[in-house]
TrEMBL record:
UniProt keyword Manganese present: no
Cellular location(s): Cell membrane
PANTHER family: PSMA PROTEIN, PST FAMILY PREDICTED COLANIC ACID TRANSPORTER
Pfam families found in the cross-reference section: Polysacc_synt_3
CDD domains membership: MATE_Wzx_like (cd13128)
Alphabetical keyword list: Cell membrane, Membrane, Transmembrane, Transmembrane helix
Transmembrane segment boundaries: 9-33, 39-61, 82-108, 128-149, 161-179, 185-207, 246-262, 303-326, 338-359, 371-390, 421-440, 446-468
Origin species: Pararobbsia silviterrae
One cellular-component annotation, GO: plasma membrane
Highest taxon listed in the record's lineage: Bacteria
Bilayer disposition of the protein: Multi-pass membrane protein
Protein's recorded name: Flippase
Organismal lineage: Bacteria, Pseudomonadati, Pseudomonadota, Betaproteobacteria, Burkholderiales
Length: 495
């Protein structure tokens, strides 16, 4: 795997981890300043803004796809036309979303629902929420453009600085002007505007955009045609991702949602490794012809298995002690088996996601979207049966089956010709199955120490196989060593 790709993977991983820690560190301060009720409303606001992401219509990913191709060909004029076409389209749809937000707030007041002081504060935030929609829409285009140019260092630096501003500016405003919802939300929107402006300035510089252009109708149609299928597929997958918790709550009650959601939210943090790789590979796969894209996808799959499997092994064995310390014995006993099973699902989803982005990058978003649409009713039926028959464990195993089937189907559609990679993946999967088979029974029969000891043995086997099977992992290790020991030389590529 190319050294530049590995470097970008590391940059993207750090760019995903740092904002997460920044956000976690400020949550107690927000709750202390605002109180539980106001903080809950703030959290709901950002969820609402996320729903308005559908107004992006996939323009950010379409922009990334097309700009990566324009950068590869060196067509500066096309880059500028693509950027401005996506910018104007997202600005217009964002303004339409603003109108919807304002009308919703007006209807809320007219119907007489605003009767308490907190509800009046909520209504006062509506104009700021309306402003947030176009800011977010335009910022997504900026993100797509800068990632399409593969300038991940600039993007993640801006994102990290933006997260600092977004988390700290509202806290400062609350201290100075009072801890009310309008003050906090207004400061947060101002932070989003500052971060968006920084990202926009970086995009104009990187793409060498020197003047404002009107939208190109032909490019708008192409972007919309591509992005529409992507956003439909993402929406369908997102709905399927939440269906397990919804059905558990409907069939078994809210208590069991807690037992399921706690380990699920924890183990899905492993997906940051996958996300870093996928964010790096998408523009490169978009710019390459089919043969080159196949090679990069195979290398990426081998590298992902190598770096993801050992942490999954650690997760399976260490999840029990961690849950007991984190949420207590009562929740841990119910949640632990679910969490261990879902780690297998996370591993499979990493495989299928790589095949999905290969299809999308090579101009076939319809194929991946059809898979999501076709599997959705099957997943719903399987979850209904599994939950009724086996409770939350049944739901977890259905998610594993969904991930495995999607991986097989998407890999077949993407035509990833990688027999050697399949053998490597089966060996990694075998180690995960062994971990799953040993962790619970050993801890129950012989104690945590024995279980963790077995985990160390399996981890050593997993790490050894990862090192032997992945040239990309060896290259990354040499690159890191070269940064620590300046005289150690890292190779340019590993094939």
């Amino acid at each position: 795997m190319e050294r530049a790709i590995l470097k970008n993977v590391a940059i993207n991983f750090v760019g995903l981890v740092l904002p997460t820690f920044i956000s976690l560190a400020t949550i107690p301060t927000y709750i202390h300043l605002l109180g539980v009720e106001r903080y809950g409303f703030v959290a709901l606001i950002w969820t609402l803004i996320g729903y308005f992401g559908v107004l992006d219509f996939g323009m950010s990913i379409a922009t990334e796809n097309q700009i990566s191709k324009a950068c590869a060909s060196g067509d500066t004029a096309l880059r500028a036309r693509l950027f401005w076409s996506a910018f104007w389209l997202n600005l217009v749809t964002g303004l339409c979303g603003s109108v919807v937000v304002l009308l919703s707030g007006w209807i809320y007041v007219r119907l007489g629902y605003a009767t308490t002081p907190l509800q009046h504060e909520m209504i006062a935030t509506v104009p700021w929420l309306a402003l947030a929609v176009p800011i977010s829409n335009v910022s997504w285009v900026f993100a797509g453009a800068i990632n399409g140019a593969e300038r991940f260092g600039v993007f993640n630096t801006n994102q990290t600085i933006g997260t600092f501003i977004f988390q700290l500016l509202p806290i400062g405003a609350a201290f100075v002007f009072g801890a009310t919802l309008p003050v906090v939300i207004a400061a947060a929107i101002a932070a989003r505007l500052i971060a968006g402006a920084m990202l926009g300035a970086a995009v104009l510089r990187i793409l060498d955009v020197r003047r404002v252009l009107p939208p190109d109708r032909k490019l708008v149609r192409e972007l919309f045609g591509y992005g529409g299928w992507v956003v439909l597929g993402n929406a369908t997958s997102g709905f399927a991702d939440t269906m397990d918790r919804t059905l558990i709550g409907f069939i078994m009650g809210a208590r069991f949602v807690t037992y399921y959601a706690v380990p699920q939210n924890l183990v899905t943090k492993l997906q940051m490794l996958q996300m870093a790789l996928h964010r790096t590979l998408f523009p490169r796969l978009s710019a390459l012809e089919r043969e080159g894209a196949d090679r990069v996808a195979r290398d990426g799959l081998s590298f992902m298995n190598a770096v993801l499997t050992p942490p999954c092994v650690v997760g399976i064995f260490a999840l029990g002690p961690f849950l007991h310390l984190w949420v207590g014995h009562a929740v841990a006993v119910e949640s632990l088996p679910v969490g261990r099973i879902l780690i297998i699902a996370v591993w499979f989803f990493g495989q299928s996601a790589l095949a999905r982005i290969l299809l999308q990058a090579q101009g076939h978003p319809i194929a991946s979207t059809r898979v999501s649409l076709i599997t959705l009713p099957a997943v719903a039926i399987a979850l209904w049966i599994g939950i009724h028959a086996f409770g939350i464990l049944g739901a977890a195993w259905v998610i594993v089956a969904r991930a495995a089937i999607e991986n097989i189907v998407l890999s077949w559609l993407a035509r990833i010709r990688a027999r050697q990679t399949v053998f490597e993946a089966l060996a990694h999967l075998g180690l995960l199955v062994v971990s799953l088979a040993l962790a619970g029974p050993l801890a129950k029969s012989f104690g945590i120490a024995t279980s963790l000891g077995a985990g160390v043995v399996v981890l050593l086997c997993s790490a050894t196989w990862s090192w032997m099977s992945s040239p990309g992992l060896r290259t990354l290790a040499r690159m890191m060593l070269a940064r620590i020991v300046p005289h150690a030389k890292a190779p340019e590529t590993a094939k």
